[in-house]
């Protein structure tokens, strides 16, 4: 009973972590949007920090619906096509019982004994000793095994490896890892967008464009605003790197 309690507690915990990661993803995106708005205002106006922050806040409110829509679209695309992207990167391809009878029988027996739907079985043409599970739902779940692992391990050892990957699927570890990688991709995209904004604005300044001055808005806050924007971007980027690392550690 203790084992079952621990198993289902782990599954529930992974579901909560997955939801928290998705919420955190939107939070990081909103931080990046504010950083971009603040940088844009600092590169446009020579004003006080307080005025620039208020102006960036207004820009942020206007941009949030678009940022939300873009992030949701990114998640939808990742949910639908992430497995194809993984196969393209790894070179994995699906096999049948006829093509891999030994591996197929081992995996099928394990699935029957555990009462779970059999994931897709894929092979990767590599001499490395490796296997991994991917997917976000029962229709997408798959286990990829390298040729090196098949040729090196005996049946009992292969069975242990397949059982290990099935456990990750059943526990929701695979879903958690995929979501973490999606977060890293979204934040990296926005970070690159803001860096390009810095670069292009720098070129404009070099070409003779000057920031607009207005005594009513104060002055001297642009440098501090840029430093705050850079700090926000750096923090979000570091968190986006740490999240997948932590997810792998949990896995």
Q: What this model shows, in words?
A:
With 251 residues, this protein is of the alpha/beta class. The chain has one domain. It is built from 7 helices and 6 strands. The strands form 2 sheets. Strands 2-3-5-4 form a 4-stranded mixed beta sheet, sandwiched between helices. Strands 1-6 form a two-stranded parallel sheet. Strand 4 and strand 5 form a beta hairpin. The chain starts with a helix and ends with a helix. The N terminus is likely disordered.
Q: How are the SSEs placed, and which strands pair?
A:
Blueprint: H1 2-44, E1 45-46, H2 49-90, E2 93-94, H3 101-114, E3 120-124, E4 131-134, E5 142-146, H4 147-152, H5 155-171, H6 173-206, E6 212-213, H7 222-250
Parallel strand pairs: 1-6, 3-5
Antiparallel strand pairs: 2-3, 4-5
Which properties best describe this structure?
251 residues; alpha/beta; two-stranded parallel ribbon; 7 helices; disordered N terminus
